[in-house]
Each structure stands twice: as structure tokens, then as C-alpha cells.
Description:
The chain is of the alpha/beta class. The protein has eleven helices and nine strands. The protein folds into two domains: 7-189, Rossmann fold (3-Layer(aba) Sandwich); 199-262, rRNA adenine dimethylase, C-terminal domain (Helicase, Ruva Protein, domain 3), CATH 1.10.8.100. Helix content is 38%, strand content 19%.
Amino acid sequence: MNFSAKKSLGQNFLIDQKMINLITEVGDINSKDIVLEVGPGTGNLTEKILEKKPKDFILIEKDKRLVDLLNQKYGNKINIFNEDILKFSYKNYYDKKLVIFGNLPYNISTQILAKWIKIQNLDKFCKRFVLMFQKEVADRIIAKTNTKNYGRLSIFANWKMNIEKIIDIEPISFKPAPKVKSTILMFTPKKKFFELNDPKNLEHVTNIFFSQRRKMIKKPLKFLFDNFKDLERELNLDLNLRPQNLDNLTYYKISKMYEALIN
């Protein structure tokens, strides 16, 4: 069946067999694994994953045409949900240590990632994520302190995950070809990470800092804390620094202090 991709759903189907093989290998699936694939499209990666004979295989696809196609192709080998990934409930999977694959729609990829990061006991929910992003977004996710791409996304993603860049993918590997390059990243949930009461506080703090990333950190600190001078001393901060000069851990500590302030 010849499919026309829906632009509204951000559909670009991966057709490069070499890349499909690489993604499957990176996922390192065995027969005890429960696999979740987000946005399977026409099933090119799905087929390769099935060769690994996972214990269970769950697919989430918003496009009803593709759901029908995949059901015709794979029948009882898959368990497919015709749902919006942002509304999908994981309540039956929180302790399943899933292996998650996703060629994520570029327009909502960071929202999907944020929803996963906010899951409690993330290391029990997922063993690893193998995800594809627009290269520009991936560069922001893996950016280091003191670089222009470093910001909210890298601070939030690295909070509970170890992240490894796998490879960049050229537009020609997709049908239809997107206008930009893509990147595959692998995320492994950390067993130990900096404890915060609510991820929303980290989001709020980093939003305040990076909404004016060229300003010195004195301004956001003053906005968030009346006693910002105490904070300056406790964390040994130079108030002349810019937001991109503070490392991840400093943002987690500031968020923890913000939580103590509002609770």
C-alpha cells in the first residue's frame, strides 16, 4: 500500500535499511524484553524489531490508516494503540523496564521526552530509550555547559538520564525527505539522580534563567529569591556569570532551594 505522509502529524518514514539495522542493534533487545515503539509509520523498524522476538511488542500510532496497515501486516504479533502519544497512559507499564523506540514527530518531540522524564522510578519503567530527533533539538539535548546550545533542555534531560549520541541521519534516509538532518540518541535512566520534589520546579527555575540567557544570573536569582545573597554564598556563585555558565548540578541545587522556599 502506497502511503502519503501526513504533514500535520509530522510524518517522515525511515526507509534506510542500514539505519534501521543500527537502531535495532543499539536497542539490544532480547526475548525477555517488552518493547514500545512510538510512531511506527509503515512498519519498517517494526519488522526488524520483530525479528528479535521480544516478549511483548506495544505500538502507539495516531494515524488510523497506519494502524489498519500494521494490523494487516503483523496481526497478533503486535499490540497496537491508536492514540496520541502525549495522552497515552503508562499506568500498566510503570514496572516493566520497557525498551522504547521512537521516530518522534519533530513538532512535539521535546514534550514527549519531558513527559517520560517526569515518570517516577524511571529506571523501573524503562531500560533504555532509542529516540530520533531533529538534529538541532538533539544538539540542545546533549549540549554541555558554556556552549551556545546549552539550556533548559539539556539540564532537564540529563537530570535523570545518561545520554549518548549514536549517529546523524541525512534527509535522504526518509520518505518524504525532511528539510533537516536527524540524530539518534540513546537514553539510559539513572538509578541515582538529584532528588527533587517536583520536576515542574526545575522547569520553572530554568525557564526563569534562560528566558533571558544573555543577562547576568543576578537578575533571575533576585526574581526567584528574596535572600539571593544567602544563595550566592551557599553555592559560591559569581553573580556576573550568564545562565549558560552554570553547570547542571548548580541548577538542581537552585531548584531544591526554590522548593524549600515555596513549601
